[in-house]
Design goal:
Layout: E1 2-7, H1 15-27, E2 31-36, H2 50-53, H3 64-73, E3 76-84, E4 87-88, H4 90-98, H5 107-112, E5 127-133, H6 143-155, E6 159-165, H7 178-194
Parallel strand pairs: 1-2, 1-3, 3-5, 5-6
Antiparallel strand pairs: 3-4
Helix pairs in contact: 1-7
């Protein structure tokens, strides 16, 4: 199992990074690759539509070029980051917008015809785990589960796990939240069993 962890938080020792580490413990043994978006120079999707007309990959060449290539090949992609202003933080949102290039070539034709997503450019049987941390209780921002689930489904992920970890107001709060560790361990065991 090949796991790629994309960290969206600017804090490498923050809650989402710490909890991603707990998830990785549960997913192991596996081949892990990690990247912190805050270390990269990149832009969001430009809406140029070149990935629909002339290219199988995003034509923008920047710090996300290699990230998209690794995510495309990974069995499991983990997107870990904080919720800012009631949504994904900007770094993670720009990255996910660039996942647009993973949509099937006939995505819009299928949508217009009322059909589901076509075969994604990431290939079949891929898993995404979205690990989001937030200061507010987990009952807040529940709409993100639906929105992000739809985006990941259309992107082509067959197995989607979205977990929002709430009540994390200090960067160290996750160090004592064994309830969250247990939740992530259950996700990790489920994913590991799927790829066994």
């Amino acid at each position: 199992m090949n796991v790629f962890v994309i960290h969206g938080s600017p804090r490498k020792q923050g809650n989402s990074s710490f909890l991603a580490g707990k998830l990785m413990e549960s997913l192991g043994p596996a081949a892990f690759n990690q990247v912190w978006l805050a270390d990269l120079q990149y832009k969001g999707c430009r809406g140029c539509m070149a990935c629909r007309r002339q290219s199988e990959i995003c034509v923008v060449r920047d710090g996300l070029t290699d990230v998209l290539a690794v995510a495309k090949e990974a069995d499991v992609t983990v997107l870990a980051g904080p919720v800012y202003q009631e949504h994904l933080n900007g770094d993670m949102k720009c990255c996910i917008d660039r996942f647009f290039s993973f949509l099937s070539a006939d995505h819009f034709k299928r949508r217009a015809a009322g059909k589901g997503p076509g075969l994604s450019r990431i290939g079949p049987h891929k898993t995404v785990i979205m690990l989001l941390t937030q200061g507010q209780p987990e009952t807040a921002h529940a709409y993100l589960d639906v929105t992000l689930g739809t985006i990941m489904n259309e992107t082509g992920y067959s197995h989607i796990h979205i977990t929002r970890c709430g009540g994390l107001n200090s960067a160290k709060d996750s160090r004592t939240r064994t309830d969250l560790w247990d939740r992530l361990d259950a996700i990790g065991r489920e994913v590991r069993a799927h790829y066994a």
